[in-house]
Design brief:
It is a single chain. The protein has eleven helices and 15 strands. It has 383 residues and is α/β, with parallel strands linked by helices. The chain has two domains: 28-224, no CATH class; 240-383, Nutrient germinant receptor protein C, domain 3 (GMP Synthetase, Chain A, domain 3). The strands form three sheets. Strands 1, 2, 3, 4, 5, 6, 7, 10 and 11 form a nine-stranded mixed beta sheet that branches. A hairpin with a 2-residue loop joins β13 (262-279) and β14 (282-297). α10 (336-343) crosses α11. It is globular, with a radius of gyration of 26 Å.
């Protein structure tokens, strides 16, 4: 009787476990890590980055140069799906999309308004997530996807894979994922800025240059239009109108007639307050920025009042430069219209056009307050 019971138990366990028999083994699958989307001659060109999983676990030691971290495959088609299935023709194993980390759009894909179509394709697919980062570029897609991190560390901790890591040290352009992009498009002013990536040649080793991805600007998009890409100084003001800001730096001359009067100040913890000022058939915006400043390079004999004025004026100039650049391309780059929509909806309904309040150069005023000014370490001249 005991033998019969044990036999029945084994049969029952076999029936229960048989539900897993059709699952694909992890080692018999390939894993999509990133994808580049181009649009050429009225066709999609997709570039898929496949990672070597054996390198992902090696976080303590650099990967040897002989180990290939990534391979890039490509496919072409009249639709995104057709391009991906064209890519499937040369793939050895089943492809898993659940680890897809970021998308890069070419400038041509932006100009041809392919962002919405691509995003819709990915969010309809069960394996992909809303936390996928989104970027734009003008560089060669394949070259960009073949770059590896500094010291050949695992690709999964690269700048594009984990942008928030380096953002804490330099808050130039805030990363954006698919979820945030959809929210930005769905709510006034129906415009968004996605980080713009370029290949940097600033890194070398004994074998020569080691290209790295660098985030140097932002591409301005609306629901239906690609506006323009602003880089470096043109878009530097965007970092200040952002409550997610962590850290950045401003430099200025205390005395324009003295080359050795250069000051460098670290800026931390920006608090942004935007106040719409309602007038008859017109709205202006007062932006108050509150920051903490830390002296990095302070010229000998510098006065605190001069340093504070230098910080305030530099931030104001950057904010206004970026604001004017946005106006040039008919973009509410600081999303000022949304503040009216949120807090003065009745007036917003009267004045909005396509989700935006009409802006001009006089619509924005800036105030910068320094909550605390820390001196930092002493310089040699202070010893």
């Amino acid at each position: 009787m005991k033998i019969i019971k044990n036999t029945l138990l084994m049969i029952l366990m076999a029936l229960i476990l048989s539900g897993c028999w059709d699952n694909q083994e992890a080692e018999r699958m390939l894993y999509a890590h990133a994808m580049g989307i181009d649009f050429v001659d009225n066709q999609y060109k997709v570039y898929l980055q496949i990672i070597n999983l054996s390198s992902v676990a090696k976080t303590d030691n650099p990967i040897t140069p002989e180990e290939l971290q990534v391979e890039i495959g490509s496919g072409t088609g009249a639709t995104m799906e057709q391009a991906i299935f064209d890519l499937y023709k040369s793939i050895d194993e089943e492809l898993f999309w659940g680890h897809l980390t970021y998308l890069i759009f070419s400038e041509e894909a932006l100009k041809e308004q392919r962002v919405n179509t691509v995003i819709e394709s990915f969010i309809r697919y069960a394996e992909t997530r809303y936390r996928i980062w989104v970027y734009s570029t003008k560089d060669d897609m394949k070259d960009l996807l073949l770059t590896v991190p500094i010291n050949n560390t695992p690709i999964t901790i690269s700048k594009l894979d984990d942008p928030l890591n380096s953002y804490d040290q330099n808050s130039f352009i805030h990363p954006i994922n698919i979820r945030e992009l959809i929210i930005g498009f769905n709510e006034p002013n129906h415009e968004i800025v996605i980080p713009f990536v370029s290949i940097s040649e600033d890194w070398d080793n004994r074998e020569g240059e080691t290209p790295k991805p660098s985030i140097i600007g932002g591409s301005l998009l609306s629901l239906t239009t690609y506006k323009e890409t602003l880089i470096n100084d043109e878009i530097a003001g965007l970092q200040w109108i952002n409550n997610n800001f962590k850290k950045s730096e401003v430099s200025f001359l205390l005395d324009k007639n003295k080359k050795d009067s250069h000051a460098s100040i670290f800026i931390h913890d920006v608090n942004v307050k935007v106040t719409p000022i309602l007038k008859a058939n017109d709205i202006t915006f007062n932006v108050n920025l509150s920051v903490i400043a830390v002296g990095n390079i302070i010229p000998s004999g510098a006065k605190l009042a001069d340093l504070e004025n230098g910080v305030k004026n530099t931030i104001k100039q950057e904010v206004m430069r970026t604001y004017r650049a946005g106006l040039e391309y008919n973009t509410d780059i600081y999303r000022l219209s949304e503040y009216v929509y949120r807090y003065h909806n009745k007036e917003w309904k009267k004045l909005e056009e396509n989700g935006k309040i009409k802006l001009n150069e006089n619509s924005l005023s800036i105030e910068v307050n320094i909550r605390k000014f820390k001196s930092g370490r002493m310089s040699l001249t202070d010893l």
